[in-house]
Amino acid sequence: MIRPGHQFGRSTAIALALLLGLAGSPAFAADGNAGSSPVAGAGAATGTGAGAADPPYEQQLQRLAEILGALHYLRPLCGAEEPSVWRDQMDQILAAEDPTPERRARIVSQFNLGFSSFATVYRTCTPAALTAIERYLLEGKKLTRDITARYGR
User: Where is the signal peptide, in residue numbers (predicted)?
Assistant: First the structure.
């Protein structure tokens, strides 16, 4: 378990490094089908508040979870053949973090918020959706670099 002030484990760093590599991979060619469901298990937790025992990068991690959720919806909608890549990345981060049930619920809630926020607005790929994808990929890369540079081992 990660405590405030401690660096996150090697497996978290690896999961975040995978995210950095994904945006440039051939898996991001634009052909595919829209839509799998968001990550299950969010429970009733909402909000991005960090608990007393959360690591110092918690807000960044929750934002990254929201970005992964948005990409999980938008990328397949816009033709990418990656029905579960982003959800799988979220699962890997959760496994590496091994959060408490409450913290897990907050992180998953952010993933689901990212997914559902776009699912309620976009039914087809639009120029605005493509712009959102580009911006979220850049922001996700930046967050990943920042977290691994500051807290990685």
Answer: 1-29
Place of tokens 């909000």: 47
pTM: 0.72
pLDDT digits (tens, 9 = 90+) for 33-53: 334 445 555 443 444 555 668
Question: How many Å apart are CA 84 and CA 51, to the nearest integer?
Answer: 29
Residues 6+ apart with CB under 8 A from 50: 58, 59, 62
- Which of 147, 142, 53 shows the shortest CA–CA distance to 103? 53
- Token pair in block for residue 126: 């639009």
- Per the CB < 8 A criterion, the answer to whether 118 and 132 are in contact is yes
User: In the prediction, which pLDDT does 21 show?
Assistant: 53
Q: Which residues, listed in sequence order, are joined to residue 19 by a DSSP beta bridge?
A: none
State the amino acid at position 12 in one-letter form: T
